[in-house]
Predict the 3D structure of the following.
Amino acid sequence: MYIGRFLVVAPGLAAYRVSSRSFPNRKTVERDGAITVLPTADAEPTDNPYVSYNCIQEVDSDTAVIGNGSHVDPIAEKLGLGYPARDALAASLLALDFEKDDYDTPRIAAVVGAESAFIGTVRRDALLVHEVDEPTLVATYEKDSPEPFSFENEPEGPNEAARALYDLDFEHPVCAAGVTVDAEGVETAVYNEQ
């Protein structure tokens, strides 16, 4: 099954996977408190605004934002200004709305702290934001409403979380990223197909 880009979030842990039929030549790169999705050196040139973006952004060393597009940055900015997680997600998703591509692709995002997690999506027909206390998945296609998710083996860190999502049996994996948040701070990892 093809579910497009997706994320899983729970208190203290989140992971994100790029799955793509149209733009498979991408990778995740760590830089300055963020993880960015970028085209690989052999990718075809494109002016598509949905190909490159920060998919994880650290906020104040105790929170991380994760998502499938340019909305990650304004969510992080609002959190930095003191907005509650629910409000930062809702305001930014509503302002940017779903992606204006051929598929009306939903925007998905989450805010994760050591003890709390919120997940949100904006689609053509709805804006959904929920606090979650167990692993929860949302995707751009087929699974565009948050739903409970069980890891086969509970990841012990961001590397394992990224790899676990990459290895799931959904079509067209491209790259992945993971993040953990605990009393020691935010830790991130990337996974790119070798």
Notes: The longest helix spans residues 85-96. The first strand starts at residue 6 and ends at 10.
